Design the sequence.
């Protein structure tokens, strides 16, 4: 989601006459889009911004800005943490970043021409206000960086109140874009060579539930999937991330009659213990989560399921942990992101007194990782000798003839070929070996 928001900001700078550079050394404006999900991510962003302050010495006009979740949650206090910071822009104001930065930069460059001392203080902008319809502002892409597989933001915010999560605080309540606007965006992407779209939302399957009605018993999200499916030239559709709440039969059924839906869902489970799910304020039981996975596997035989799990949530006992492990083994996830619980300020779980020690969290993390990795390796090994349809997304930076691609199940496949000819194409690849998490193969020539 942050990647997609950053792209929107980049596009506004391109349109405003700026050139994008990945090298901070060349930049006149340096922006960091921040995540608040873990404390580590915030510390990394603060460290990086601190380090980049050195460019002021060489280029006194450089403008520095924080955007995104940390900017939203910490606001103006960030100016105290990072003295050279100029701009702090929250999650509903991405469309204003260009205006703020351009204004400061122009003033500084004018002042430079007047030969005024350039260590200008007092230009700071902090904008973390709510903005009506901000969900409709993330809809443009950077043409030069167009990938055949591209993200499309369909909504913003979340109405849940998971006790460990800072998102409701930083991203506001659920707001969906109209289907017609999303379809326009996808058609424009298709015209630029995109063949696969991933629809993005904090709880993507709840898209539009408060704004748009059900039609023929189908949720707005399923209506959207059907509308995207009709777009000629779009060959693959993914979405992330769904939630067990609102994951109903209409969505499960859609996998039986919408063949462009890829055979993969990323479905966050968080815990296999009902006791911990309740403490997390996740309003479903483990049994319900398993039931949805089983129905999905029945609807799509080759479905790959990946997940997110938190270990060491406050009060998690060994028994709770083992329930998570058992569920993960039974479902047989193709992969999983395992997080050690991280205390986030302004969240109810951070005030709990029954915090788990870092040593125990680390033990559970490593134990789970070993099991998940082994399942992933075994599943990939089973694909050796098969032929898989992959979408080629381009060559590697080191060797342009070494191409990267993904199967419908979202597994990475590397093969040799011609990047210019094959990028953006769906090709059959004979899988020859697996290095554990990556598959290697050869194109099948008919
Ligand atoms: S569903 Fe829970 S974890 Fe996901 S964004 Fe909403 S509050 Fe956060």
Sequence:
């Amino acid at each position: 989601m942050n990647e997609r928001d950053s792209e929107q900001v980049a596009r506004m700078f391109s349109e405003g006459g700026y050139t994008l550079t990945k090298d901070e050394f060349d930049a006149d404006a340096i922006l960091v889009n921040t995540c608040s999900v873990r404390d580590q991510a915030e510390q990394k962003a603060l460290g990086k911004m601190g380090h980049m302050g050195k460019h002021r010495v060489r280029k006194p006009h450089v403008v520095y800005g924080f955007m995104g979740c940390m900017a939203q949650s910490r606001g103006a206090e960030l100016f105290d943490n990072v003295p050279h910071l100029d701009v702090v822009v929250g999650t509903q104001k991405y469309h204003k970043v260009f205006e703020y930065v351009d204004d400061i930069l122009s003033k500084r460059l004018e002042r430079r021409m007047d030969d005024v001392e350039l260590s200008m203080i007092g230009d700071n902008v902090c904008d973390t206000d709510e903005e009506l319809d901000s969900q409709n502002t993330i809809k443009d892409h950077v043409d030069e960086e167009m990938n055949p597989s591209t993200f499309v933001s369909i909504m913003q915010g979340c109405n849940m109140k998971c006790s460990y999560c800072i998102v409701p605080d930083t991203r506001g309540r659920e707001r969906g874009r109209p289907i017609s606007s999303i379809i326009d965006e996808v058609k424009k992407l298709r015209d630029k060579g995109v063949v696969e779209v991933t629809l993005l939302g904090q709880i993507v399957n709840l898209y539009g539930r408060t704004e748009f009605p059900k039609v023929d018993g189908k949720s707005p999200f399923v209506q959207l999937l059907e509308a995207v499916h009709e777009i000629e030239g779009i060959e693959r559709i993914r979405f992330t991330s769904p939630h067990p709440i609102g994951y109903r039969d209409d969505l499960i059924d859609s996998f039986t009659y919408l063949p462009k839906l890829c055979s993969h869902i990323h479905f966050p489970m968080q815990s296999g213990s009902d006791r911990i799910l309740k403490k997390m304020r996740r309003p479903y039981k483990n049994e319900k989560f398993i039931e949805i996975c089983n129905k999905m596997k029945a609807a799509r035989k080759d479905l790959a399921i990946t997940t997110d799990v938190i270990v060491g949530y406050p009060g998690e006992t060994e028994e709770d942990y083992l329930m998570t492990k058992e569920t993960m083994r039974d479902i047989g996830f193709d992969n999983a992101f395992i997080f050690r619980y991280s205390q986030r300020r302004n969240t109810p779980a951070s005030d709990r007194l029954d915090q788990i020690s870092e040593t125990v969290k680390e033990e559970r993390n490593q134990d789970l990782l070993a099991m998940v990795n082994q399942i992933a390796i075994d599943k990939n090994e089973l694909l050796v000798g098969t032929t898989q349809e992959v979408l080629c997304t381009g060559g590697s930076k080191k060797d342009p003839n070494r191409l990267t691609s993904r199967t419908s199940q979202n597994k990475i496949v590397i093969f040799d070929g011609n990047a210019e000819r094959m990028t953006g194409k769906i090709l059959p690849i004979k899988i020859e070996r697996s290095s554990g998490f990556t598959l290697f193969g050869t194109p099948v020539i008919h």
Remarks:
- Residues 387-443 form a domain with the OB fold (Dihydrolipoamide Acetyltransferase, E2P) fold (CATH 2.40.50).
